[in-house]
Amino acid sequence: MEDISNAIRAQVLVDALPYIQKYYNKIIVVKYGGNAMTSDELKQAVMTDVVLLSLIGIKVVLVHGGGPEINDMLSKIGKEAKFINGLRYTDRETAEIVEMVLAGKVNKSLVSLLQRHGGRAIGLCGTDGGMISCVKKQGKVDLGYVGEIVDVDTTPIVDCLDRGYIPVISSVATDKNGEIFNINADTAAAKIAAALKAENLILMTDIRGLLRDKDDESTFIPEVDISEVPKLIRQGIISGGMIPKIECCVESIRQGIEKALIIDGRIPHSILIELFSKEGIGTLFRSK
Prior knowledge:
Order of helices and strands: HEHHEHEEHEEEHEEEHEEHHEHE
CATH class: Alpha Beta
Structural class: alpha/beta
Number of strands: 14
Number of domains: 1
Oligomer: single chain
CATH architecture: 3-Layer(aba) Sandwich
Distance between the termini: 39 Å
Radius of gyration: 19 Å
Largest sheet: 8 strands, mixed
Helix content: 40-55%
């Protein structure tokens, strides 16, 4: 960075101005996960991006998971992590650990990191203020205490945003009886974005975006109309773990979000690149 002249630095800021104006006072919901959570370098880059956006008047809501940290804690108590069709089976003991790790350790460490970078952050989870209400997720296989969101009360989030704070939200919630449930973080981010009528939903992943051939990044697809998604699933282009992520994008668009994006969290400052450049960096989902 030392080799960049002051003139170039100034031009970069000028080039970013139209994008800053576009997103000023708008809400962006970012689902934070993958390598961007486990690499110190990438974590620092994401926190810097979020603080910068907040300081220039863009309202960022950070929603996070924490699968590796949950697995580490389960291992420490001698409990094996169990997955069914890629989804975590969550018995009562595991649900308590999920709450402790996500709403406690991970959430507060992210709040602390944002504040060390000059941001003002508040940690929340779905139980705070009755923000996220859920029911037990139904399906062919019993996943235990895994929840399905039925309602999002945005009041706690909006209160934080209006006071200049960055809400950092962990994906746990309660049902009407007060039972704790584990919620998929992508789903939580999509539901929160829709309830907030956010401008964009950004899901951070460990791949470039949607690929026609999952093993060849040169087959990257930059933009998808949500009407094309069923066909892409039938063709096998959208498969495996990408299906629920993209279904979250589709559902958020149907509920009024203008753009939903899957971006490569392995690239430092990928959030800024996506928001402040014409080409962007990930796969854009929208309804034309």
